[in-house]
Design brief:
It is a single-pass membrane protein. Among the domains are: about 300 residues, Rossmann fold (3-Layer(aba) Sandwich); about 60 residues. Helices cover about 55% and strands about 10% of the residues. The protein has a 7-stranded parallel β-sheet, with helices on both faces. Strands 6-13 form a two-stranded parallel sheet. It starts with a helix and ends with a helix. The model has no long low-confidence stretch (mean pLDDT about 95).
Length: about 525
Amino acid sequence: MSMIAAFYGGKSILITGATGFLGKVLMEKLFRTSPDLKIIYILVRSKAGQTLQQRVFQILNSKLFENIKEICPNVHEKIRPISADLNQHDFGISKEDMEELLSSTNIIFHCAATVRFDDPLRHAVQLNVTATQQLLLMASQMPKLEAFIHLSTAFSNCNLKHIDEVIYPCSVEPKKIIDSMEWLDDAIIDEITPKLIGDRPNTYTYTKALGEIVVQQESENMNVAIIRPSIVGPTWQEPFPGWVDNLNGPSGIIIAAGKGFLRSIRATPTAVADLIPADTVVNLTLAAGWYTAVHRPKSTLIYHCTSGNLNPCNWLKMGLHVLATFEKVPFEKAFRRPNADFTTTNFTTHYWNAVSHRVPAIIYDCYLRLTGRKPRVLKLMNRLLRNISMLEYFINRSWEWSTHNTEMLMSVLSPEDQRIFNFDVRQLNWLEYIENYVLGVKKYLLKEDMAGIPEARQHLKRLRNIHYLFNIALFFIIWRLLVARWQMARNVWFFIVSFCYKFLSYFRASSTLKL
Ligand SMILES: CCCCCCCCCCCCCCCCCCCCCCCCCCCC(=O)SCCNC(=O)CCNC(=O)[C@H](O)C(C)(C)COP(=O)(O)OP(=O)(O)OC[C@H]1O[C@@H](n2cnc3c(N)ncnc32)[C@H](O)[C@@H]1OP(=O)(O)O
Ligand SMILES: NC(=O)C1=CN([C@@H]2O[C@H](COP(=O)(O)OP(=O)(O)OC[C@H]3O[C@@H](n4cnc5c(N)ncnc54)[C@H](OP(=O)(O)O)[C@@H]3O)[C@@H](O)[C@H]2O)C=CC1
């Protein structure tokens, strides 16, 4: 019998960010392993014209939840969406809903966040810091609360090279930052943002670090744990391999490369690609929830959920295997044949951005214009290059994360729990995982059918022929221009032709002699 699964049985669980990538995998696993849980409250906002119920319906009817209705037939009754916007005071939760949450909740998983790197500081602080503070305030009024699990990121202290499972201070207290956001205007906030974030690359990592400090400061008398995953990738094993539903992390890059838009990227090939599968993060999160509630450690434990120190993979290995998988399962309607390389200097990056990215985009836009359509490829390309520049920080450095707490947690699990809530990344086969990643991107993000693979191959063959024809035509045009205008080119051409003629004559003469 799994102790962790049994622990969640009969419990009332509150999840924020349940409509997000990790939140959905977390909910699925909870229903699959503890179908007798009492209820899952999820804080949801209406979005893109969808009501809360429509959003929940969409999640429950998605491929990810395919088997849940069999395991937990009354799953609809066990999810209770609560209308909430974490940007609002008290999250805009109604009085009745708030009373129910406060009186019933046993466990909180706080996953909601803004994960955008370019969010203005005010918005990132509101969601990643102030909302965390408010949720802790709510948690402190929950008499039945057993554990509060906060999802942070392994990159919250990415300004350090070696990161321990501790909370590091920031130069300005989070409370001061929260206060200042209330009276400073946007222009001033924009001006002071670079000074505040210091040697961190963006507002996301900075506000996640502030969020951790808030958790530490506001969690008196509560059982709290912080999970710090690195770059969360698609599922490794559960409920099935390769599930992914957003463009974050490497997924967008894989699409851009597979569709032939991206031909080079500035990356350090030997830097560690610290990816961690979503189901591994969820298993560790659930195990930490159980441990925190049952063993009640004296201080807040931080768990690094990373792969680099136990089973490292680097960007070169990842890149090469992504490209090899494109050969087996090409994406449909590619712009160019997928073929990419890493650049390592400013000069080569700018050169290849011009030659391999912008020039083909301009040529294609000319073709669109000539055929009476609206040019759009250069705009798309510039956006892609801008977005990639925001990720570059993370693919040109390596970090070391210590994992003592994570290893301790693994060691206290029963063999049954180690199997059901497996977070031992040493067992991960990277080649298999990356192949499933590319397949998952094709199936679940691009919604492409496997039956379309022969046509996609044909399309790539056509692109290859166009590429060869284009190169031959370009060569002849340049040659004609040179020979027509430049005596030196004529001399070189005459020399090459006469050399070939002499070589052929010699070859013919020597073969006649042999006979
Ligand atoms: C010798 C041979 C060598 C071989 C080499 C081969 C080389 C290449 C082959 C391919 C290889 C792949 C392997 C290497 C790749 C390197 C990968 C690099 C990844 C590094 C990731 C680092 C992450 C690190 C760290 C931290 C981890 C975390 O804690 S947080 C989670 C991660 N967060 C993110 O990733 C967020 C990043 N994104 C953003 O901040 C923003 O989206 C953006 C700033 C990048 C883009 O903003 P922008 O305003 O331009 O676009 P936006 O409006 O957001 O979107 C445009 C349209 O796209 C849709 N969209 C965008 N994002 C998503 C999403 N997540 N889910 C769904 N849809 C999304 C959006 O809706 C828009 O659509 P429209 O509205 O229709 O326009
Ligand atoms: N993905 C990754 O690579 C990593 C993620 N993490 C952390 O894991 C956690 C989950 O990340 P992930 O699932 O990828 O993120 P997603 O962006 O997929 O999900 C974010 C969730 O937060 C919710 N949310 C955002 N703003 C609000 C709001 N104002 N009110 C209510 N809900 C809101 C979103 O709801 P809605 O659907 O309405 O937008 C969504 O459910 C985050 O804390 C993140 O920092 C850590 C390391 C890596």
